[in-house]
Each structure stands twice: as C-alpha cells, then as structure tokens.
C-alpha cells in the first residue's frame, strides 16, 4: 500500500485549487510581457515615424515580414518545450528565468536608436529597427512568451479556474497598458515636433519600466505551481504534430483568432494617431487606453458567467459585436469638437477586445486536453505555439495594414518628424481606415468561430475520459 501512495504522488501529484497568489502571479507574467508587446503595438510605429522619420509603409512591411518569422520561431520553441523534461521549478518557469533579462534589454534598445546612433541616415536606422525588432520579438519574446502561455494548462483543468486565469491575465495586461499609456502619452504630447526630446524621454521611461517588468517576472515564477499530470517521457515530433492534425478545435480557434487579432492590431497601431491627430491631443492616447481598459472590468467578471451559461464559443462571438458599435461611434463622431466621443468608442470596442481575448486564452487551454484525448500525450508547448503562430499572423497583418493605412491616409513621416502639422483630412482618413479594417476583421473572426465544435459538455466528457485513462495507467504501473 505504501508503494502505491509513493508512485501516485510522484507521478500524479494532488491538484490543488488555485489561490489568489497564483492568479496574481500569473497576471504579473502578462503585465511584464506587455512592456514589450504593448510598447511594440502602441508606440513602436509612432517612435519610428515621428522620431526617426521612417515611412509607415516601411514599418508595416517590417511587421509583416518579421512577425511571420516570429510566428515560425513560435513553432520551433513549442517543440523545444515539449521535448524538455520538468525540473525542480517545473517545465516552463526555468525558461522564463533564463531569458526575461535579454528580452527586456533588447526591448529597451529598440527605443534608443537616435540616442545610441545619433545623426545616422534613415537607411541605417531602418536596418537597426529590423535587427532589434527581430531579436526582441522573434527570439527572446518568443522564448519567454511561449513558455508563459504554454504553462497555463499545467496550472489547472477546472473550466471556471481557467476562465479566471484568463481574466487575470487580461487584468495584468490592462494594468501595464494603463501604466505605459499614462507614462508615455504625456511625453508624446509634450514633445510633439521635438524628435530629440521624445527620444530622450522614451529611452528613460522604457528603461525604468523594464526594471519593474523584471520584478514582475520574478513574482510570477515564485507564485505559480505546475501541477497537472503529464507523462514524464518527452513528446515525440510525430506525436506533437499528429495531435495538431487531429485537433480541429485548435485549427478553427487559430483561424478565428487571425481575424480578431488583425482588427485589434490595426486599432492598436492607429490608436495613437487617432488620438494625436483626430482628437487633437496626445493625452487622449492615455484617456482612450483608460476607457478601453475600463471595459475589461465590465466584461472580465462576466466571462465565468458566460462559460457556465452560453459557453466560451457563443460568448466569444457575441462580445465581438461590441467592435461594430464602437467603430460606428468613432467614424460618425466629430472628434475635433467632441473628442471625448472617441474615448467612448474605445470603451465600447474594449468590451470586444478584452472579451474575445479572455475567452481566446480559455479556449486554447481546452484544446490541450482535446489533443491529449486524441493521442494520449499532452503537447502544451506545440499547441500553444501553433495558436501563437496564428495570432501573430493576425498581428503581422494588422501591423502591415496599419502601417500602410498611414500611407493611404496621406501621412508623410519625414515631414512630421521635421515638425510639419497633420491636416484634418489626413486625420479623418486615418480614422476611416481604422474603422474599415477593424469591422471587416471582426466579421471574419466571428464567421470562422461559428464552426468551433468543442462544447462545454463535450469538454467535461473528454477530461473525465483522460482522468480514467491516467488512473488505469497508474494502476498498471503499481501492479508491476
């Protein structure tokens, strides 16, 4: 009997309910990651157009090319994680500990181009932009973020706890978005037309916030615990990609996420320009971000309710309709005279952004169990990597479209970096392109997600069957 207990505890430790510390620690990980992700989404293109003078189309093309490479590196990293055996800190947390430092250093370097290399040509700074963005995004962010995201299914299998984990992840992201917005937006406003002043301010701010991010990563590693049973043997390449070929829920979720992430990224990319030139004040970057984040606190508590009542799939589709309402408010509002209506639009769209994103992460975790049910092995790394690959395809398309939308709107980066004003016509065109692509991408995502096949009841049946298989396997090991 003693032998049975020893084997059970060694191979399948008792799964404990998640605590407040666990939720907050997991949220801290996404807050830290958004020092890189949110900065790139909201401010990188503005930095390189308004400080360095690189055309929006050039930056948009970089987003498309390097985020595609980034997404491929996700698959490689997912495979590496699946091959890795757990250590004392588990399977995922050691990777985060090793690489969050280089990630934060490289993120700072992206916003120090004119500080480290002043008086260089636009061509030189374009190469610098490509190199630093590649190392930050395709190498170090991929390593850290794939490990962070793939860890979620190992923390719990309880659907409501997964819903809460996803909500807390959004809380962490929202907190950092607010912090960055209110730290950086006033500087953009203050140094409008002063490229060198904005360069110095951004370098200092990103440096300080990176120190905070490092502390958040350490708290995340200390405050989480990987506890869901997995086979101690590494997953083979055949098993990893076999699970993907059979995982129809993951395939549909990934494709649907491309639509939503394309729209979200267009909104994030053009949001600063909408505030600065449509609402005529850089302060509205922070006001709009605050309004959008406030929507999280409206929709996040509803996520567990939606999971229990209508399910993740229908909740995902329904909250997406908020994007249309917000887009309509934005396009039909006289932003020059009533700029606060733009903030109302961002609040309404925030319901769609945070609602779909929260449910997206909860759905991805369910796809891990579906894959395990199909092949008998957990492939958290590869499953998350494929999902991240498709999300980054959406981000790549959104960044590409956002960059070129500036060109189509008539925005000339070299003139703006030299201090030239932006006309009302150009500002209106930027708003128009933002609305068109946000609405179109959202519609695509909703149509795809209508075909998502995994219901909450079916998921519970799959988890029960997996548990039965594990019990039988453990019993056979004990009998031997």
Give a structural overview.
- The chain is mostly helical.
- It has 19 helices and no strands.
- The protein has helices spanning about 1-10, 20-50, 55-85, 95-110, 115, 120-150, 160-190, 195-225, 235-245, 250-280, 285-300, 300-310, 310-320, 320-330, 340-375, 380-410, 415, 425-450, 455-480.
- The longest helix has about 35 residues, at about 340-375.
- The two termini are about 15 Å apart.
Topology readout:
Blueprint: H1 2-11, H2 20-52, H3 56-83, H4 93-110, H5 113-116, H6 122-151, H7 159-190, H8 195-223, H9 237-246, H10 248-278, H11 283-299, H12 302-309, H13 311-319, H14 321-332, H15 340-375, H16 380-409, H17 413-417, H18 424-449, H19 456-479
Number of strands: 0
* Major beta-sheet overview: none
Oligomer class: single chain
CATH architecture: Up-down Bundle
The rounded Rg comes to: 23 Å
User: Which CATH top level class fits?
Assistant: Mainly Alpha
Query: Low-confidence runs (pLDDT<50, min 5 residues)?
Result: 1-13
């Amino acid at each position: 009997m003693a032998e049975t207990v020893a084997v059970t505890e060694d191979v399948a430790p008792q799964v404990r309910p998640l605590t407040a510390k666990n939720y907050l620690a997991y949220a801290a990980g996404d807050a830290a990651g958004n020092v890189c992700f949110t900065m790139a989404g909201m401010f990188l293109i503005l930095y390189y157009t308004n400080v360095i003078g690189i055309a929006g189309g050039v930056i948009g093309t970089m987003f498309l090319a390097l985020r595609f490479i980034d997404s491929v590196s996700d698959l490689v990293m997912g495979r590496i994680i699946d091959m890795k055996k757990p250590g004392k800190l588990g399977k995922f947390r050691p990777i985060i500990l090793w690489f969050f430092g280089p990630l934060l250093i490289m993120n700072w370097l992206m916003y120090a181009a004119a500080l480290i290399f002043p008086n260089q040509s636009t061509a030189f700074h374009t190469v610098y932009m490509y190199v630093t963005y590649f190392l930050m995004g395709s190498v170090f962010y991929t390593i850290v973020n794939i490990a962070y995201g793939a860890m979620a299914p190992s923390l719990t299998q309880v659907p409501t706890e997964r819903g809460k984990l996803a909500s807390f992840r959004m809380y962490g992201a929202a907190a950092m978005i607010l912090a960055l917005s209110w730290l950086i937006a006033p500087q953009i406003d203050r140094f409008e037309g002063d490229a060198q002043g904005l360069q110095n301010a951004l370098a200092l701010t990103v440096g300080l916030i990176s120190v905070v991010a490092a502390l958040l990563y350490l708290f995340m590693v200390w405050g989480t615990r990987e506890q869901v049973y997995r086979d101690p043997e590494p997953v083979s390449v055949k098993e990893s990609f076999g699970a993907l070929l059979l995982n129809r829920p993951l395939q549909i979720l990934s494709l649907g996420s491309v639509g939503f992430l394309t729209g979200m990224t267009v909104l994030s990319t053009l949001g600063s320009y909408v505030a600065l030139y449509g609402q005529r004040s850089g302060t509205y970057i922070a006001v709009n971000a605050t309004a959008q984040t406030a929507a999280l606190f409206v929709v996040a508590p509803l996520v567990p309710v939606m999971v229990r009542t209508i399910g993740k799939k229908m909740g995902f589709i329904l909250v997406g309709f908020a994007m249309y309402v917000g887009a309509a408010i934005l396009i039909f509002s006289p932003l020059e005279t009533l700029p606060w209506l733009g903030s109302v639009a961002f609040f309404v769209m925030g319901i769609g952004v945070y609602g779909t994103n929260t449910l997206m992460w909860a759905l991805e975790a369910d796809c891990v169990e579906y894959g395990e049910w199909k092949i008998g092995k957990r492939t958290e790394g590869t499953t998350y990597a494929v999902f991240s690959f498709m999300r980054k395809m959406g981000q790549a398309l959104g960044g590409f479209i956002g960059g070129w939308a500036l060109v189509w709107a008539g925005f000339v980066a070299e003139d703006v970096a030299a201090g030239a004003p932006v006309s009302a016509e150009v500002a209106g065109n930027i708003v128009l392109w933002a609305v068109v692509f946000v609405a179109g991408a959202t519609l695509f995502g909703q149509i795809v997600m209508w075909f998502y096949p995994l219901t909450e009841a079916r998921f519970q049946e799959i988890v029960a069957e997996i548990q039965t298989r594990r019990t039988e396997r453990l019993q056979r090991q004990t009998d031997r």
